[in-house]
Amino acid sequence: MAAELIRHDGWAELVMNRPDRKNAITGPMGIAMAECLAAVNDDHGIQVLVLRGAGGAFCSGLDLKEFNADPAPDWLPEFQHIWRGAHRALFDCQVPIIGAMERYAINGGAALALACDLLIVGRESFLQVGEVQIGMAAPYNMAWLALRHPEPVAARLAMVGRRHDGASLLNLGVAYDCVEDGDVLATATELASALSDYPAGGSRKIKAGAR
Questions:
Q1: Could you tell me the pTM of the whole model?
Q2: Helices (H) and strands (E) in the chain, counts
Q3: Are strands 163-165 and 126-128 parallel, antiparallel or unpaired?
Q4: Packing angle of the helix pair 79-92, 27-42 (nearest 10 deg)
């Protein structure tokens, strides 16, 4: 399964589950993520969601091997619609999303990291909005940056296209916390567990107010 929902007591994990491809993005992943996010909204026992990648990495961006396969995958003609649906589901998620950004979040993967309400990063992990370097737009990165951050932050991330490590992301206000690389997932899950102990429904009310 390209993405799966793992439930815990009061919180859940949405796991991008393509570790052999560094959780690179495909159509099936987008569909599975949207389905998992809909399930989170329907389950009022879930107060917080952790978004992470399987295998110790967050997301390496689009899976170019799949996009350039011959014959083309069945989902390719619908990918733009699928991926927009995944980001819409992230926007519509009714609970806080904590991102566990291990190792890297590149291009399309960076947009997923920026979609998180609270982002935990490693000191050596990096985020890169690198589309400008290949002459492409970065619509979902720009949408999340415009929603969450001032224009100078968006410019530093998207107009130059360089890697930003954990300390830089914390300094820019993109990250909530920067920890040792091996502690990223544990820090994210501990935060999720702590927030899930708050009175039921409060996190959904805060999220609704923010939206």
A1: 0.97
A2: 9, 9
A3: antiparallel
A4: 30
**Residue holding tokens 């170019």?**
64
- Alpha-carbon 56 to chain mean position: 14
d(CA 48, CA 40): 9
Average pLDDT per 10 consecutive residues for the chain, totaling 211 residues? 96 98 98 98 97 98 96 98 98 98 98 98 98 94 96 96 98 98 98 96 93 81
Cβ within 8 Å of residue 21, ≥6 positions away: 60, 63, 65
Place of tokens 């996010």: 37
Q: What single-letter amino acid sits at 32?
A: A
User: 68, 75 in Cβ contact below 8 A?
Assistant: no
pLDDT score recorded for residue 1 = 85
Residue 111 is encoded by which pair of tokens?
């947009």
